[in-house]
Design brief:
about 270 residues, alpha/beta, Rossmann fold, 2 domains, 6-stranded mixed β-sheet, 4-stranded antiparallel β-sheet, 10 strands, globular, binds adenosine-5'-triphosphate, L-phenylalanine transmembrane transporter activity, AAA+_ATPase, ATP-binding, ABC transporter ATP-binding protein, nucleotide-binding
Length: about 270
């Protein structure tokens, strides 16, 4: 890697659960406007890395620096501060939309903090003052712009739970983007998608990188996604980093091939 300042820097991250070392002295960085994939066999520690970055777990050891308007030391911050101040957004392996709310409402809930601020924590909102109405209109405009981008504008008023699975996955990513993050962390966004949906996901992630200029950290088992769209790949195995580099290089790395052998060698093919 050359001298571009990283967006997220993970240094000597270690996470222990009792006697189990889930992450063992892992360091890597993700650059701005790039997609950095974290791959590895089941149980390698990928989700644990995300849980440390987003404040779900407090690392046993290590420094996690997010560079924005200033440096945010994530390991010292609470989960809600990491979302609101450092502006790190994430999605989860399992879909976590509000299924009974409409598609549009799901994107408005994501902007709750911004709206609460504009509402003066309800006073301006209750009085219907312009400052709140302007913020509300901007939130709706942002939500509608995202629905258009993910091809769901016509479904704005449908309950989110009625959408096909692939559309729900895209809506989750749009919801995370409505928080206007600096770093977007996606945990297996392609899980359960058919090849057409997976190709649509690739397009969406590339546009988030290239058009919105957002840095993405991506955990993914689907190698067609990883190899096609990532700029940099970090490989974990049993909590350790065993390789990192451009996708084509990592794919040929003997240590990576060994880690995947016994599961399915094809898993790292293209
Ligand atoms: N809260 C926890 N308590 C105890 N052990 C945990 C906890 N969270 C994760 N682990 C363990 O840490 C290890 C790494 O798990 P992790 O979920 O990070 O792997 P992963 O690479 O994301 O796996 P997968 O691809 O299956 O999602 C596993 O052995 C897991 O059982």
């Amino acid at each position: 890697m050359n001298a571009v300042t990283p967006l997220i820097e993970v240094e000597h991250l270690t996470m222990r659960f009792g006697g189990l070392v889930a992450i063992d002295d892992v360091s890597f960085s993700g650059r701005p406007r790039e997609i950095t994939a974290i791959i590895g066999p089941n149980g390698a520690g990928k989700t644990t890395v995300f849980n440390c970055i987003t404040g779900f777990y407090k690392p046993t050891v290590g420094r996690l620096t997010l560079r924005g308007d200033r440096d945010y030391l994530l390991e010292r911050m609470l989960g809600h501060e990491i979302g609101q101040r450092a502006r790190v957004a994430r999605t989860f392996q399992n879909i976590r939309l509000f299924p009974a709310m409409t598609v549009l409402e799901n994107l408005l809930v994501a902007q709750h903090n911004k709206l609460m601020l504009a509402s003066g924590y309800s006073v301006f909102g209750l009085l219907g003052l312009p400052v709140y109405r302007v913020a509300e209109e901007a939130a709706i405009a942002l939500a509608r712009a995202w629905l258009e981008r993910i091809g769901l504008l016509a479904d704005a008023d449908r309950p989110a739970g009625e959408l096909p699975y692939g559309a729900q996955r895209r809506l989750e990513i749009a919801r995370a983007m409505c928080t206007e993050p600096r770093l977007l962390c996606l945990d297996e966004p392609a899980a359960g998608l058919n090849p057409r949906e997976s190709a649509e996901l690739n397009q969406l992630l590339v546009s988030i990188r290239d058009r919105d200029g957002i840095g993405v950290l991506l955990i993914e088992h689907d190698m067609s996604v990883v190899m096609n769209i990532s700029n940099h790949v970090v490989v974990l195995d049993y909590g350790r980093k065993i390789a990192e580099g451009p996708p084509a290089e990592v794919q040929r790395d003997p240590a990576v091939i060994r880690a995947y052998l016994g599961t399915d060698e094809e898993a790292i093919g293209d």
